[in-house]
Specification:
This protein has one domain. Helices cover 48% and strands 0% of the residues.
């Protein structure tokens, strides 16, 4: 439940991104679980969770798949 305007910034800058809005702060685990459920409700796809300070290269993602 962000209140800093980040949702609007992401919506404008990245219109292809599907945002999930929660009315309350679900915490780290709850937010991740909500995101996973949202992704899997759209398609049966792999889900990769990364913190905002994580650095990963494309070959690493390919190896994980």
């Amino acid at each position: 439940a962000s209140t800093d305007g980040s949702l609007q910034t992401i919506s404008r800058g990245f219109p292809w991104v599907h945002l999930i809005r929660n009315s309350t702060n679900l915490g780290f685990g709850g937010g991740n679980n909500r995101g996973i459920l949202g992704a899997l409700s759209i398609a049966d796809v792999p889900v990769l969770l990364l913190n905002n300070d994580a650095c990963i290269e494309e070959p690493d993602v390919v190896r994980l798949l």
